[in-house]
Each structure stands twice: as structure tokens, then as C-alpha cells.
Amino acid sequence: MMAQSRLQLSPKGFPMNSFEELEWMERGNCKKVNPEIFFPEAGHPNKHAKMICATCPVKSECLEYALQLVGWDVIGVWGGTSGKERRNIRRQRLEQESLEMKETA
Ligand code: SF4
């Protein structure tokens, strides 16, 4: 039996991107594996998912998409990152933007 794509599993509330904008999902390494690997229960390892992401040709697109997620941003491995890692990336970007604004003010 063929595994479902992550797009089919996505819960409501994900950003409404056009089909063309989400085309990269069709090229993800996770397309061919059980999506449950990418949504481990709290406290369970996500190492297997991260290994699959490591060689994914659309890793950066996936990470940027996941960084847009609001409300669901702590769930699952996207672009090789955990929810905690994405929160850190988001915080670092905000700090960088704030610093740049202060420098230009
Ligand atoms: S980076 Fe990981 S989660 Fe994202 S599309 Fe690739 S394999 Fe799937």
C-alpha cells in the first residue's frame, strides 16, 4: 500500500498556498514513506525523520513553509527541524530583524 502524502495529512489551519506554491511537496523524500514517522509522539525520537530530510531536495522550501505555520508550528519534523528548533530559528530571525531596524534608525 502506498503511503499518504503529508499534504493529505495536514491538519486544518495550514497556510492556504496555491497548488503551484506547494508543488515542492510532491518532490519531498517523505512522499515515499509513512508520514507518521514525521509526527512522533512527545518524548519519542525524531532521528529517523531527520535522516530522511537530510537528503531531501526540497528541504529549504519545506523549512520555510513550516516557519509560516501558526498554531501548528510545534508539530512534526519539517525541513529537518523539530518544532523547538523552528521556534529558535524564528526567534533568531526576529532578533536579527530587530537589530537591523535599530541600526538603520
Ligand atoms: S525536508 Fe523532510 S519533511 Fe520536508 S519535504 Fe523533505 S523529507 Fe519531507
Describe the structure.
The structure is a single chain. With 105 residues, this protein is mainly α. The chain has one domain (14-104). 42% of the residues lie in helices and 0% in strands. It contains 4 helices and no strands. The chain has helices at residues 6-9, 47-54, 59-68, 83-104. Residues 1-12 have low confidence and may be disordered. Bound molecules: iron/sulfur cluster. Residues 28-30, 38, 52-53, 56, 58-59, 62, 77-80 line the site of iron/sulfur cluster (SF4). The site of iron/sulfur cluster has 14 residues, from helix 2 and helix 3.
Task: Briefly characterize the structure.
The chain has 105 residues and is mainly alpha-helical. The protein has helices at 6-9, 47-54, 59-68, 83-104.
Percent of sequence in beta strands: under 5%
Oligomer: single chain
- Residue ranges: pLDDT <50 for 5 or more in a row? 1-12
Using only C-alpha atoms, the radius of gyration works out to 15 Å
Q: How many domains?
A: 1
Class computed from helices, strands and strand pairing: mainly alpha
Shape estimate: globular
What is the number of helices?
Answer: 4
SSE arrangement:
Elements: H1 6-9, H2 47-54, H3 59-68, H4 83-104
The structure holds iron/sulfur cluster (SF4).
